Amino acid sequence: MTVQSKPSIGPWGKATAGATGAVLANALVYPLDIVKTRLQVQVKQKDAGGGTSAAHYTSTWDAITKIAHEDGVHGLYAGINGSLIGVASTNFAYFYWYSAIRTLYQRFSRSAAPPSTLVELSLGALAGAVAQMVTIPIAVVTTRQQTQSKADRKGIVATAHEIIESEDGVTGLWRGLKASLVLVINPAITYGAYERLKPTLFPGKTNLRAWEAFVLGALSKTLATITTQPLIVAKVGLQSKPPPSRNGKPFQSFIEVMQFIVAHEGPLGLFKGIGPQILKGLLVQGILMMTKERDYGQSGRFGAVKPTHSVR
Fold first, then answer.
1. Cα–Cα distance measured from residue 89 to residue 100, given in angstroms and rounded to the nearest whole number
2. Alpha-carbon distance 75 to 250, whole Å?
3. Residue 230's pLDDT is what?
4. CA neighbours within 13 Å on the CB side: how many for 35?
5. For residue 174, what are the CA distances in angstroms to 109, 146, 281?
6. Considering only CA atoms, which of 198, 168, 145, 194 is closest in space to residue 312?
7. Which end of the chain is more exposed for a tag (fewer CB within 10 A), N or C?
8. Cα-based distances in Å from 288 to 17, 20, 253, 281, 296
9. Residue 6, in any domain of the structure
10. Which residues 6+ apart lie within 8 Å of 200 measured at CB?
11. What ranges cover the Solcar repeats (predicted)?
């Protein structure tokens, strides 16, 4: 009896599967996304007496309850349409380009062996950079929608038009691109941590159980988030409207955002919102790893089980 092997899944198939999984996972945890964004853009201001004013949101739960009270429960889903479009487009582009670049590499590689970890990281970083350059405008629009009050909130097209008219023209839609390009190291760290932790936590295992893949994906994403959190906060600051003490002038670089936060809140301010950021990341990454390990685990390598590229 002949054993039939599974048909090879091309770049479009992998891109569609990756984007679909990312959209579903992000939709489930979207309130955490808006909460972490609100926490990351608020800045403690010095009052006339020299003291420091309290932040509007003091914790994840405080943010959830205040947003729900001020804007209703649907306020926790403000900007969700743009966010899911952004997640879908970014992950589709990432998975497509990763699959295409990896296939091209293997075609011209002189070695029949699978790509090394360093090569996998390089291919993933290149695919992530291409994906970010193409899809960052929707991330900028989504961040604006998430940080606007209910009265000021507009649709996707109207928000994009407002950014173009009020700031740097069309280039305003690419605010935070440099930070986003640097943040391609986030999936690379996730991937590297996954590969390192797998033999340590589950020695001798090629195919992981669903809960094992979930735990491993969650842990690897947590390590990546802690490492890159200051840059994530800076990127959100670049893409949101500037705080009042900036006199209406937008930040010009992520270094400037970091300096501003440290001056007003100290170094720990660069890690604000890390609670919901980690919780969202580990849930999304855990779900994706669990699903993909089950679908592609037979390969025995992580190559088909790439981490989601979203670091929002």
1. 16
2. 25
3. 94
4. 26
5. 35, 17, 24
6. 145
7. N
8. 10, 10, 32, 10, 12
9. no
10. none
11. 9-104, 115-200, 208-298
**275: in domain:** yes
Q: Which long-range contacts (CB under 8 A, 24 or more apart) does 247-251 make?
A: 250/167, 250/168, 250/175
Residue type, 64: I
Domain, as residue range, for 108? 11-42+55-304
* pLDDT at position 267: 93
How many domains, the chain? 1
Q: What is the DSSP letter of 46?
A: B
Q: Which amino acid is at 108?
A: F
Q: How confident is the model at residue 35 (pLDDT cuts 50, 70, 90)?
A: very high
The enclosing domain of 34 has a CATH number of: 1.50.40.10
Span 135-163, pLDDT tens digits: 899 999 999 888 887 778 888 999 999 88
Amino acid (1-letter code) at residue 163: I
DSSP state of 153: -
Residue 175 lies inside a defined structural domain of this protein? yes
Residue-wise pLDDT tens digits, 222-260: 898 999 999 999 999 888 876 545 566 677 888 988 998
In a domain, 199, yes or no: yes
Distance separating alpha carbons of residues 232 and 84, to the nearest angstrom: 18
Question: Which residue is associated with the tokens 């996998």?
Answer: 120
Give the DSSP H/E element, type plus range, for residue 13. helix 11-28
Rg (CA), the chain: 20
